[in-house]
Specification:
The complex is a heterodimer of chains A (417) and B (222).
Chain A lengths: L3 H27 L6 E7 L4 E8 L2 E6 L4 E2 L1 H7 L5 H6 L6 E2 L2 E2 L2 H7 L1 E5 L1 H4 L24 E5 L3 E5 L4 E2 L1 H13 L8 E4 L11 E4 L5 E7 L2 E6 L8 E6 L7 E7 L4 E5 L5 E4 L9 E7 L3 E8 L3 E8 L4 E8 L7 H9 L2 E4 L11 E4 L4 H18 L4 H25 L9
Antiparallel strand pairs in A: 1-2, 2-3, 3-4, 5-6, 7-19, 8-9, 9-10, 11-12, 12-13, 13-14, 15-16, 16-17, 17-18, 19-20, 20-21, 21-22, 23-24
Helix pairs in contact in A: 1-9, 8-9
Chain B lengths: L1 H40 L2 H10 L11 H19 L2 H6 L5 H34 L2 H30 L3 H17 L13 H24 L3
The chains are: A alpha+beta (417), B mainly alpha (222).
Chain lengths: 417, 222
């Protein structure tokens, strides 16, 4: 049992590990504050931003000057996002900025795209349904097979779990003709049947070229796009829209945001700044007149840009969502806890150990706890050579280390074993 | 001596081993029929796309079975030792208590390993029969943390039995529950893809902590 010291240290580390996960979790649970959210719209009528600020009491509508609006007044200054309600109540203007308003056109031009970091970090099983893009039917249908792209493109018939050799060969040959380098690095698509039409998949081959793959009347449609090979793709959000202005939204690893346009896959750069795809929630709204790009940083900061249809910035807005209020809990936490460990976080569905260090404020509490530990060990007449490692543990890990010491409590006789 | 220990431990756990093997087998057979029946009602492509998109775990009946298996094997192995006060005698044999405990827990550990390998083998047959390889690979990573709970549950209950001090029993139980809960974090397929090895390392540390309790037991701290 000479290793009892090491075993005890392992026990202490286990306590520290568990304490650093659960104590902050319980602390934040107890001190949780009311949730607030803000939705930012752009009024084409007033050429300024308009807001819906919500909390548990309900929603508050305001204009950019902070004037309270009724829901109806709000809808009237943001007519394109609320066109169905305004049409129903007969309040839809006939024209805006001299342009005649035709409901069909409003509907066609309205779109909304949302990307959360969680979606970007998702690890879905890499099997995809390739729908028929021109079936002649009104609604889309799932195919009887799923595909993978490894050393070739393979279709696996779901019913038999067997590879459809003929179809696999046809698509593999079509890809090879376009100089596709197997295997695929990433495959992005929108495998939903609840969309107006299907644009298939954007696939990154092993040499970083981006291909567009779909199926037209049972035949492969494989195109090497003109998207530069040096673009480091973090995510492609494929979104089929009747407007047919862009196939998808492309986000790079440097957090640049582009549309992949229908014009020969040319990239349209969106003027976002300080956007971080790993932490921010991105929302893009489009209507007859503008594009509005809004990104929320961890519910702390929100930025919104409005551009014209040529993506020139028209207006911008920035707000610190937390304002000047600082909660007692967030002031107290750095003093109590040296760090926080969690196995999950809201920006990724993946389970891992996520470490977050506050600052050195915890050292004040840590010094006090170390002194208490020294007194405790002295009272127990524990040899300094054995105790020093525990002192260090409490000093470094603060409250967690102290709890570990209190859990073990018995440190005697190590030298006699 | 080793042979005698193996035989003695096997005598204690053989029925629970066979029983749990049977329960694991029945749960997986149930999983097989669940999938097979779904595929008799829904078309395979719709089910498979749903399984992937909504991350439906077709084998989720098994989720808490490894934990139950670990706990029961430990109860059957160590409850008689404590109840009939045999462990004190065992630890006074001319073999170091850590070595003796290592031999004893190895039997439980190997039994669990065999049951979990059996589970993996059967579920692989189910998965590969109905679904492409990708589903099988994701299933294996999803299963790993559940199996780790089995080992942690085994060591936790063993520690609770061996530990003579009640306060420490409570502490160990809290640590164990806290640790085991972590293995059930997240939902969907292969969420431990990047971290399963870290969780495995933590589970094995849990197997080491047991010696503190054995040491306390030998010294009779209470």
């Amino acid at each position: 049992m000479k290793n009892i010291l090491i075993t005890r240290i392992i026990l202490a580390l286990a306590v520290i590990l568990i304490a650093s996960i659960y104590l902050p979790e319980i602390f934040w649970k107890i001190t949780k504050e009311e949730g607030k959210s803000v939705s930012i719209y752009y009024s084409v009528v007033k050429d300024e931003f308009a807001f819906i600020k919500s909390d548990i009491r309900g929603a508050k509508y305001t204009d950019q000057k902070g004037n309270d609006l009724t829901r109806e007044e709000f809808e009237e200054i943001v007519p394109l996002s609320n066109y169905r309600q305004l049409l129903a109540s007969g309040k839809m203007p006939d024209s805006i900025k001299g342009k005649a308003i035709i409901p069909k056109e409003v509907k066609l031009n309205n779109f909304s795209l949302r990307i959360r970091p969680e979606i970007i970090n998702y690890n879905l099983i890499q099997l995809f349904p390739l729908m028929e893009s021109q079936s002649g039917r009104i609604s889309l249908e799932l195919p009887p097979d799923l595909f993978r792209i490894t050393d070739r493109m393979e279709f696996i018939t779901s019913l038999t779990n067997q590879i459809d050799e003929k179809k696999s060969r046809a698509f593999t040959d079509a890809l090879l003709k376009e100089e596709f380098q197997f295997p695929a690095k990433r495959i992005y698509g929108n495998p939903s049947t609840m969309k107006p039409f299907d644009e298939g998949y954007f696939v990154i081959d092993s040499s970083n070229k981006i291909y567009h793959i779909k199926m037209i009347q049972g035949k492969p449609f494989c195109v090497k796009t003109s998207i530069p090979q040096n673009i480091q793709v973090a995510y492609i959000l494929v979104s089929e829209n009747e407007l047919r202005e862009f196939y998808s939204l492309l986000i790079t690893k440097t957090s640049e945001v582009y549309f992949i346009s229908y014009n020969n896959y040319q990239l349209i750069k969106l003027p976002v700044q300080d956007y971080n795809y790993q932490t921010d929630f991105l929302m893009i709204r489009g209507d007859l007149f503008n594009r509005q790009i809004t990104y929320y940083n961890d519910n702390e900061k929100v930025k919104s840009l409005v551009t014209d249809r040529d993506y020139n910035i028209v207006d911008r807005y920035e707000e610190n969502l937390k304002g000047n209020e600082v909660s007692y809990a967030s002031l107290l936490a750095p003093y109590l806890f040296p760090f926080e460990l969690s196995v999950d976080k809201n920006t990724t569905p993946m389970i891992n150990f996520y470490f977050s260090f506050y600052d050195l404020h915890y050292l004040i509490f840590s010094v006090v706890l170390t002194i208490v530990t020294i007194i405790y060990f002295r009272k127990k007449h524990i040899d300094i050579s054995h105790a020093v490692i525990y002192y260090a543990m409490v000093f470094i890990t603060g409250l967690y280390g102290f709890i570990a010491i209190m859990c073990i409590r018995d440190f005697n006789n190590d030298s006699n074993i | 001596m080793l042979k005698a220990v193996v035989f003695k431990e096997w005598l204690k756990i053989r029925w629970v081993f066979i029983g749990m093997l049977l329960i694991n087998f029945l749960v997986i057979i149930n999983t097989y029929f669940n999938v097979s029946n779904v595929l008799k009602v829904y078309s395979a492509n719709v089910y498979l796309v749903k399984l992937i998109t909504y991350e439906i775990l077709f084998f989720d009946d098994l989720m808490y079975i490894p934990l139950l298996t670990g706990i029961l094997i430990s109860v059957f192995q160590f409850f008689p030792e404590i109840n009939q006060k045999r462990l004190k005698l065992t630890f006074h044999l001319p073999v170091q208590e850590s070595k003796m405990l290592f031999q004893m827990t190895s039997i439980g550990f190997i039994s669990l390993l065999l049951i979990f390998l059996f589970d993996t083998f059967l579920l692989s047959l189910v998965s590969l029969n109905f679904f492409p390889d990708e589903v099988f690979k994701s299933m294996i990573i999803t299963l790993l943390p559940w199996f780790f709970t089995g080992f942690c549950g085994y060591f936790l209950i063993t520690m609770v039995f061996i530990e003579p001090n009640w306060t420490k029993r409570v502490v160990v139980t809290l640590i164990g529950i806290g640790l085991i809960s972590l293995f059930y974090s997240g939902s969907g397929y292969a969420k431990f893809e990047q971290s399963w090895w870290m969780f495995m390392a933590i589970s094995s540390l849990f197997g080491v902590i047991i010696y503190v309790s054995a040491y306390n037991f030998k010294r009779g701290i209470s």
